[in-house]
Structures are given as C-alpha cells and as structure tokens.
Amino acid sequence: MYLGIDLGTSEVKCLLLDDSQRVIASASEPLTLSRPRPLWCEQNPADWWSAVERAMVRLKQTHGSALAAVKGIGLAGQMHGAVLLDEQNRVLRPAILWNDVRSGAQCAELEKSVPASRQITGNLAMPGFTAPKLLWVAQHESEIFRRTAKVLLPKDYLRFMLSGDHVSDLSDAAGTLWLDVGQRDWSDAMLAASGLSRAHMPKLVEGCAPSAVLRSDRARAWGMGAGVVIAGGAGDNAASAIGMGAIADGQAFISLGTSGVFFVANDTYRPNPEQGVHTFCHALPGKWHQMAVILSAASCLRWATQVTNAVDEATLLNEIEAADAKEFAHAPIFLPYLSGERTPHNDANAKGVWYGLSHGAGRAALGYAVIEGVAFALRDGYRALQAAGTNVAVASLVGGGSKSRYWAGLVASALQLPLLRHSGGDLGAALGAARLAMMASNPTTDVAAICVAPPIIDRIEPQADLADALQSRFERFRKLYVALRPIFSE
Predict the structure, then answer these.
(1) Which is catalytic among the residues 169, 236, 347, 380?
(2) Entry pTM
C-alpha cells in the first residue's frame, strides 16, 4: 500500500494506492489564499499541515487497515513557493506562492547579475519562481532574510514535518531558478546572486528515489508501521505526468486547473527560455520536460461565475452550451491574465480584460468569452512550444476544467489537436505521488509498467468549422494584448 499526498493551491489531497495500482481511498481538505496587497498571494504553511492531518484522520477512521499496510509515501505539490525557516526550523513568514508576482523588479536584477542565468537554469527569470522572491525578502524584509537558515518548497515543508529532514526533488527544485537544470544540481552562481549558499538549500534526490523515513511518532499517530519510506516526490505537473503516464519523449497533457499547463516529456534537455517555455527536470532520472504555463485557467471560470452571479461553474457552463453558438461570433474577447502571465509574455503586469462589451452581452456570452480566452492562451503557449521544436500528435486533458466536454472541444479546436480524457484524470498529481512512493519502495520495479495512462473515456477531435471560426477571434485576442501591454505597466 502507498500514500500519495498532493499539496495543491486550493486543497490537500491524500490518496491510498494498493500494489495493483487500485485507488483504495482518498480524502481532501480545502485551503484558502491570502492576498494582503495587489500582486501578492500567500498561504500559512501551518495550514497545509493542519489540512494533511485532517485528511489523514479521515482516512484512518475509514481505512485504518490500509494505512497500516503503507510501505511508502510520495509527495506532490504546488511549485515555486518560498517557505523560510530559521535555525530552529520555525517558519519566519507566510509562504510566498507561485502566483505571487511582486518580485518583477528582482527578476531583472537576477538576470543582470548572472548574465548566463538563462543558460544555467533553462528558464527566464519570472516573478513566480522562488529566487526573485528571496531577493524581494532581502530588500524589503531584511531581518527575516538575515534569520533565514533554510528555504523549502511547499511539499518539502510537508516532508520536513513528516521526517524532520530537509530534502527536495529535482523536478520541483528546477522551478526555483537556483538549479543548473542540465546538470541536475544546485548552481552556486545563481545562489550567490540571491545572497544564499548551498547551506540554505535542501538535499537533492530524484523524484522516484527514497528521500527520508517517516518519523516514528507520526507513524504511530496514523497507525502505520516502522520504516515507511518517503519518496523524493515531484512538483505538481511532473507528478501529474507520472500519474498520466507522460514519461516518454513527446507524450503530453494539458491541465485545466487553477492555472493552465501544456506539458511535454523530453528525453533530452531542450531549453527555450526566450519563448517563455519552462524547461524542468522530470521526476525520473535522465528525463526532462517542457511546459507552457498560463497563470489563470479554471480560476478564470470561477471568477466569472462569482462576478456574473451564476449558481456555480457547472451551471454557467451549461448556460454557455445551451446558448445559440452563432451569437458567440460576436461575443467579447477575454484576456485571462487575472494574475499576470507567464508563457509566452512573461508579464507580471498583464491584466484580465473583457473587450467588446455591448448591451447584447449576457452571462452566457461573457462566460463563453472566458473559456475561449483560456483556450486561446493555451494556444499561445503551444505556439511557443512549437517554436522550441516540440510538436505533439495527441494530448491528454486533465484538471477540473476537463470535466466539461464542451470546454474540452473548444480547447481541441483552438489548438487543432486531438485530446484524450481519462477516468481518474483528476487524481493526476496525487496518483503520481503514490506511484513515486511505489518506485522508491521497490527500486527494481519496471518504471514503464507503473507509469501507465489511466483508461481513456473519450477522444475529442478538433472541429474544422469551429477551428476556422476561432482563427479570426484568436488573431484579435493576440492583437488586444499587444495593444494593451503598454497600459498594463502604467
């Protein structure tokens, strides 16, 4: 039996997987975000741990015998967040999250101080990444920076609570801007540019390797045996790829979660930072991956649901699907940059926009514009991947937004790419974490036999007539950002 723990932005999910890869049970606990100032987004690490404990109490109550048989734990989590610990391992301030974009100025400073930063890290310096966050803390909260003894990523804080050890995996560490991604090791030059050294960093392991052992008091509390292995784990997207079976060169998935991700596995290190493409280590040795990332995807639909006073997201999607599609040819254009944007713009100042409003723009038209805008942003990201020499024949679609076949069809047509939906696709990162625990507990196991794709529910082909109709709207979408970009920074 294996336990996968996925620390998301909106919830913590704990999943039990048996030796035949059957999901025995799962439990989730919600999380909330704090936005104390414009551009800021934070969470209290203590809230993450409290959510894990609540979920585990529920699992123990309902599946105590399965927990007792757990041999390994895998961790997955939101990337880039900065958890600062002092010498006594006390949290010094709320964690600054991946979608916090306060550190735009510090990105420019980093690239100026290390001219080879893009070659070392394989990525542009973006405010979502961890290194510029620490530069911001050094400049604006100098006493906290002075007291910082360790910097951990979100899931690695959970590992510390589970084991007492400071460890990270390479896929998550690749999103810090402190890793030499090609060499799979910390970069002394990038650390020094942030006023840090290797002493501030956790030990590095591969995602499928053992990283620590569960503390005995924690094992007793959860009804587990001694010697439970904790795998290196992975950042959320690499973990989802393990769960979706995207490990061979060219295998891909698109996530319509809080953020949007177009993920492609690679057998070699192929960076393309100038196009805003993320190039990170995969959770398996000798593997990398590329990602086009948009900061707001399903979160845009959640926002639109609230501001249009719809009952919930599902109801709004139903209203969109029930409307006359011909009306949407004149629907507003939506820029989904509610938290700024990464690929391809790397623009922390970008804003969300409804453009072209009229008296005839009802809730369905506004909702349609939102999901279309997310589809267009993913198309922008795919164009950046293609510019890096990456082409995909078919991609899996996961995340909360994938539950809508209508939205899935819109994305397929916008990308002109067939999409596969899978049963259990919403378990991606937690399932991937549990699979990494299986590999860490059984080092001789065949990786390909573990990392198989979940069963396919359906295949969604692009609709030629819809793709043609979307083309002109996509061009307007791209022109709108270019026109507004100078205003965004004012």
Answers:
(1) 236
(2) 0.88
